[in-house]
Amino acid sequence: MASHQAHSPPSASAGDFTPAELSRYARHLTLPDVGLEGQSRLKQGSVLCVGAGGLGSPATLYLAAAGVGRIGIVDPDIVDSSNLQRQILHGDDDIGKSKLVSAEETLRQINPHVTLELHETRFESSNAMEMVADYDIVVDGTDNFATRYLSNDVCVLQKKPNVYGSIFRFEGQCSVFAPHLGGPCYRCMFPEPPDPGMVPSCAEGGVLGVLPGIIGSMQALEAIKILLEKGDSLLGRLVHFDALRFRFREFKLRRDPECPVCGDRPTITEPIDYDEFCGLPGAAAAAESVPCITVQELLQRQKTPDRFLLLDVREPFEHQICRIEGARLLPLGELQEAVAELRSAGEIVIHCKSGGRSEKALRLLQEHGIESVVHVTGGIDAWRAEIDPSLPSY
Predict the structure, then answer these.
(1) What is the DSSP string of 255-306?
(2) What are the φ and ψ backbone dihedral angles of 58, each rounded to 5 degrees?
(3) Using CA atoms, how far apart are residues 370 and 356, in angstroms rounded to an integer?
(4) In whole angstroms, what separates CA 294 from the centre of its chain?
(5) Mind listing the domains of the chain with CATH numbers?
(6) What is the pLDDT of residues 332-360, one digit of tens each?
């Protein structure tokens, strides 16, 4: 494996560790490729985990258990009951807490000897460069394309390995992106993001709860190997895992000399506007360009005699879990075929889970000349939060 710029401590000795640490890491110390020197590398190493969710949970648990000396975690979210099926850092008692508070409590129990640094903020262009500069390695546990491109670009610019993982339904993949070590970056594999709404999120498409445990553990493994400077990393390789068939496949990845960030003539030399790059307008722009109403306004409309069609463009399984009274289910994938029928529907109000699919449905109808249409900001998640808390979340 190519050499990494991680700490190269002098010959380690038992005096570098407390008796409690020597006992805790005993099974590492007896490994020929770890030993005292390797454990000292881990203790002096640092990893930034972007996200404390499905992937970040197993990754941080195993990094802490292994004795990585300094672990940073970035996450602005709070724990929701729908997280608990896969985000094993958190439990029932943590619902409503900051994910970072919950993560810290759990990781302190796993290993009180490591230093935890909590960044309760969004990982974004304004702070990513400064944040990543303090760590040896980044573990990307994010679930959206804008943040993946950001973490990739910042790691390339700062010459830090980026341990990538992603999950969807029953499949996951893992790789190490590090052009400074001779491999490709994320942009070499995916030069352009998909169109907004084309790839469902885990909330929309679902994910088998155990899957992030497998992929996140692989990410922790790769980070530990890089710190140890042992073994063959996933540099230049992508491993794909199909849980239903229990099949691993490996793909070779090559650096693209035309890549705008790691290529021979890079055009990206600092973080850009990643929401814009991924086709995600800012809140102000979205409000100006897309006709929308709040759930409070929808409730008032339901109380008036004026007739309108309320469309639910989620999937049937979502509609079975919870629904807004009077909504007609018409999944987004079937909307195109129903355009002719909807021309005579009068005013149309569209909702989905959180607003992304309903906005896409609105644009599709507008493209076909249907103008009397709005979508519900925040979708049924906002309806549950503000109107009917009895609805189950998912």
Answers:
(1) --TT-TTTSSS-S--S---HHHHTT---HHHHHHHS-EE-HHHHHHHHTSS-
(2) -65, -35
(3) 19
(4) 27
(5) 14-277 (3.40.50.720), 283-386 (3.40.250.10)
(6) 989 999 999 999 888 999 999 988 899 98
- How far is Cα 76 from Cα 53, in angstroms, rounded to an integer? 11
How large is the average pLDDT for residues 182-200?
Answer: 83
* Residues designated as active site: 202, 352
pTM: 0.78
Q: What is the pLDDT of residues 103-159, one digit of tens each?
A: 999 999 999 999 999 999 999 999 999 999 999 999 999 988 999 999 999 999 999
C-alpha to C-alpha distance for 216 and 232, rounded to whole angstroms: 18
The Cα–Cα gap between 117 and 119 comes to 7
Return the percent helix, strand and coil in the chain, to nearest 5.
40, 15, 45
More confident residue, 374 or 277: 374
Residues in the chain: 394
